[in-house]
Amino acid sequence: MMKTDMTESTQGPARLSSGATLIACADSWIEGEALRQLEQTAELPGMRAAVGLPDLHPGKGYPIGAAFLAARIYPALVGNDIGCGMALWQTDLLIRKLKPEPAMARLQGLEGPWEGDLEAWRAEHSLAPTDFDTALGTIGGGNHFAEIQAVEEILDPDTFAGLALDAERLLLLVHSGSRGLGESILRTVIDQHGHAELDPTSAAAQAYLSRHDQALDWAEANRRLIATRLLDALGTDAERRLDVWHNLVQAVDWKGERLWLHRKGAAPADRGPVVIPGSRGTLSYLVQPSRDCDLSLRSLAHGAGRKWKRGEARARLSARQRPDDLLTTALGGRVICEDKELLYDEAPEAYKGIDRVVADLVEAGLCSVIATLRPVLTYKVRRPAHRQPGARKPKRGRA
C-alpha cells in the first residue's frame, strides 16, 4: 500500500492512484508532498505518463526527480534551470600527486567573469550572444558544484575501459546549468501563458523551444568553461567523457505517436553511461543504462535527492557540527564553500542515501553499476571572489 507521510516508505515500482508510476522499494524514503505533486502533475491535460524516480522530492509546484510524457509542452515542468546537467572529464592528474592544500589555494575567483576571449568562446561553441554571458564559466549556487573525484571501485571493467577512463588519474565532475538565461526564458513564458500547456504547433511553443534549445547549448558550454577554468588553475589537461542534461523537453516517437518527454531532475537513459552523484560526503555512481528503460520513460535518477528542505539543515546540524567541521567529509574529501548557509544546506545529511537510490534503479532493471567514484575536492563557492596571485591565466578551450 502506498504511504504518503514523511516517515513511511513505498513499494515499487508501483502504480499510484493517478496512474503515475513510482520507482522505489520499501526501504526508500519518499516524502508525501513529492508523491502528491507527482500525482497532481500526472493529471494535467494531455499527460500520458508520469514517473517518479528514487530521488523524487518536492519542488516548487512540481516534483524533482521525475519524467513526464505528454502530448503538449509544459515549460514549467522543465523549470528555470534549463539544461542543468552533469559532465565528466578524465584528467591527466595522477591521484597520488594531488596535494589538497595547494590545490585548494589555486582554486580562486571562479565566481567572477572569465578573463578569456568570450567572443571566441561563443564562436567555438556556436553560441549567439545573450544578456547573461558574463556568467559563462560560473558554477552558481544551490546544489551545483565542480568536484575532483577518484575511482573507488570498478565493477564492470570492460565498460569502464571502453570509456577510456584511467583508474590512476583523477576525474572532474561538473554540475551546473544555464544560470540566469534559463530563468529569464521561463519567466517570459510564465508571464505570457501562466503554467498552461502549449500546443506544440503554436507560435508560442516554437518560440519557447527555440530559446529552450539555446539554453541547452549555453548550459553545455558553461560546463565546458567551468572545467577549463578549474583545470587551468590546477595546471592539468583533461578530455570530456560524457555530458548530459537533467532539465529539458524533447520530442520523442513513442509507440507510433509523437509526444514530448519532459525531464525535471532526471538523467537520460538513452545517451549512454551517466554519473549519478551522491552528496559531497558519499560515493557517486557511474552507471550503464539498460537497453529497455521505457518503464522509467528512458530516464534515471539524477542524484541522491534532497531529504531536508533548504534552510532546515543549519537548524538541525549547527548544535553538533560547526562550519569548519563540514569542510572535511567522512570519506576524507575536502570542501571549498565560504557561504555558511550553503555549507549547511548541502551537507550530506540533507540528502537521501545514494546507495539506496542506485539499488532501486538496479533492482528495477534500469541500469548496472560500472564504477563508484569518491569525492576528493568539492568546489562550491568562495566569498569574496578574488584571483590567486601567480595563478595561470585561463586558456581557451582546454576542456
List the helices and strands and how they pair.
Layout: E1 14-15, E2 21-22, H1 32-42, E3 47-57, E4 64-70, H2 75-78, E5 85-94, H3 100-106, H4 118-124, E6 145-154, H5 157-162, E7 169-176, H6 179-193, H7 203-234, E8 238-245, E9 247-254, E10 257-264, E11 266-268, E12 274-276, E13 284-289, E14 299-301, H8 313-317, E15 334-337, H9 340-345, H10 354-363, E16 367-381
Parallel strand pairs: 2-3, 15-16
Antiparallel strand pairs: 1-2, 3-4, 4-10, 5-7, 5-8, 6-7, 6-16, 9-10, 11-14, 12-13, 13-16
Helix pairs in contact: 6-7
Description:
The radius of gyration is 20 Å and the shape is globular. Strands 5, 6, 7, 8, 12, 13, 15 and 16 form an eight-stranded mixed β-sheet that branches. The protein has a six-stranded mixed β-sheet with strand order 1-2-3-4-10-9, with helices on both faces. The chain is of the alpha+beta class and about 400 residues long. It starts with 13 loop residues before the first strand and ends in an 18-residue tail after the last strand. The N terminus and C terminus are likely disordered. The longest helix is centred in the middle third of the chain and has 32 residues. It contains ten helices and 16 strands.
Overall pLDDT score: 91
Distance between the termini: 49 Å
Strands, count: 16
Broad shape: globular
Structural class: alpha+beta
What's the order of the H and E elements? EEHEEHEHHEHEHHEEEEEEEHEHHE
For the largest beta-sheet, the strand count, sense and barrel status come to:
8 strands, mixed
Which features characterize this protein?
399 residues; single chain; disordered N terminus; 8-stranded mixed beta sheet
